[in-house]
Amino acid sequence: MDRWRQIIRQHRTLPSDDIPVVLSRDGTHGPVIHATSTAARTRGIEPGARVVDVQAIHPDLHVEPADPAGDRSFLDRLALWARRWSPWTMADRDDGLFLDSQGVAHLFGGEAAMLSDIQRRMAMQGLTAHVAMAATPGAAQALARYGSIQICDDIPAALAPLPTAALRLDDTTVQLLNRLGLKTIGSLAEMPRVSLMRRFSTLPDDRNPLVLLDRAVGRTADPLNAPVDPQQFITRSRLPEPVMDAAPHMADLARQLCQQLTQAEYGARSIRLTIYRIDGEWRQLSLNTARASRDPDHMLRLFRDKLERIDPGFGFDLLTLEALQVEPLSQIQQRLDGRRDSDADLAALLDRLSARLGQDKVSWSRYVQTHKPEAVEHRQPAMAGDPTPPPAPPRERPLRLLTPAEEVQVIYAVPEGPPSQFRWRRVLYKTARHEGPERIAPEWWRDRPGTRLRDYYKVEVQDGRRFWLYREGVVHDGRGDTPRWFLHGLFA
What are 284's strand-pairing partners? Predict the structure, then answer.
């Protein structure tokens, strides 16, 4: 909700504080409430309720669309920013952060001062933070969401008055516990464990109340699996005065970037050049590579024909070159015989062609496993992935396929056999010899109902040319009228 306010404030006036505002997302039976404002919570509106049901009770309800994907991305960035307090931080579901404060609280003047600093700096960004500190992650998140204690020394006593939902149980398990009379964590902890274990033995660990209770009070380990810091590969060039051409500075930027990639044993797949103009604007230029590369000369060749597309304005005094997407690239020894690596040469050629013509103009074949000859090969951009080897055909296939297959008129020699004559493109051909049939049945898991099978024949006509024909369907198959004939390919 705080993020929504920051975004809306830039475009229009926010609703007054006494109007209930909710963010909605798609649910199983229509839109449901994703987040609520303070006024909405005061009226008892809770996330998960259907929007139409709440609107019937509160006609003045103000509904806005939620952005769960954007919220998650924002929370992930916030988790990395929170490493100013602790090197071990991670996002907690949709609206929380975990920080491992062991050994770092004294750097901020103690635990209370650290929590106060977190709330103050969050408020500076327009975010409302409810904080709590405990010896276990489960106890800390329960107190932050449902309790009033910020620094917990006695976990069982602090958790006892909290509802069972504080253990992050799903709604079904919470309802079951409520029917059993176990509405608080204290009442749950006082129950005999044998009977509870028998009732909840089939639940997974992240939904089992006993497992979550043991983690919260510290009986079982619950370590934080904090993600590693993302590596950034970026070089900057600050100029003493504005310039209009970036080409003279590209060599040093590319060399420094490749040195960073070499030390980390990575190669760049996506590179972005950014210039910062003196009028406060910036312009960017991005390119991709077919293979991971850290060759500065190759990067310069790719940028050479694109630098003139950047509008320098009245000049720029800062340039950055950044590797947006990287892949592991070990330092390997080149060939001992002195020959060139043909794969590297091909990748460099693809990079240059894609940079000059456009990524969608350079493509190669991608093969899939299917019985239909026309669906075996597809085209994909060369930058989208490596080519796949063609599958081995069960029989000889023509060098050229007609897409789509062209219908022909035939004269049967025998029923359900190959044609003795057929007319294609207003020319009559007489069959000299044939081979077949090769039957290809419909793919029932992919084709539409009623698709007919095909019987393929390799036909040689009197002048020596060979054609690939197929009959679509058979007589009395219940899937259509008289079978039709098509010319699908040409042999050498």
Answer: 274
Structure tokens at 314: 């009245």
- 152 with 158: CB under 8 angstroms? yes
Kind and range of the H or E run holding 141 = helix 137-146
Which pLDDT score is estimated for 332?
Answer: 65
Residue in this structure with the two tokens 């198959």, named with its chain if needed = 477
Nearest by Cα to 432 from 440, 421, 443, 448:
421
Looking at residue 334, its pLDDT comes to 60
In whole angstroms, give the CA distance from residue 9 to residue 167.
35
Q: pLDDT tens digits for 157-200?
A: 999 999 999 998 888 889 989 988 899 999 999 988 888 888 88
Distance CA(374)–CA(405), nearest Å, equals 9
Total residues found in the chain within this entry: 492
DSSP string, 143-184: HHHH-S-SB-S-HHHHHTTSBGGGG---HHHHHHHHHTT--B
Distance (Å, whole) CA 402 – CA 347: 31
Q: Model-level pTM?
A: 0.59
Widest CA span of the chain, in angstroms?
98
pLDDT at res. 342: 59
**CA 36/CA 45 separation, integer angstroms:** 7
Q: Which ranges of 155-273 does DSSP label H, i.e. alpha helix?
A: 155-159, 171-179, 185-190, 193-199, 209-217, 247-264
C-alpha–C-alpha distance, residues 287 and 358, integer Å: 10
How far, in Å, CA of 445 to CA of 429, rounded?
37
Weakly modelled stretches of the chain, pLDDT under 50: none
The tokens describing 398, both together, are 């023509």
Cα–Cα distance, 319 to 305 (Å, whole number): 18
Q: What is the 3-state secondary structure (H, E, C) of the chain?
A: CHHHHHHHHCCCCCCCCCCCEEEEEEECCEEEEEEECHHHHHCCCCCCCEHHHHHHHCCCCEEEECCHHHHHHHHHHHHHHHHHCCCCEEEECCCEEEECCCCCHHHHCCHHHHHHHHHHHHHHCCCCCCCCECCCHHHHHHHHHHCCCCECCCHHHHHCCCEHHHHCCCHHHHHHHHHCCCCEHHHHHHCCHHHHHHHCCCCCCCCCHHHHHHHHHCCCCCCCCCCCCCCCEEEEEEEEEEECCCHHHHHHHHHHHHHHHHHHCEEEEEEEEEEEECCCCEEEEEEEEEEEECCHHHHHHHHHCCHHHCCCCCCEEEEEEEEEEEEECCCCCCCCCCCCCHHHHHHHHHHHHHHHHCHHHCEEEEECCCCCHHHCEEEEEHHHCCCCCCCCCCCCCCCEEEEEEEEEEEEECCCCCCEEEEEECCEEEEEEEEEEEEEECCCCCCCCCCCCCEEEEEEEECCCCEEEEEEECCCCCCCCCCCEEEEEEECC
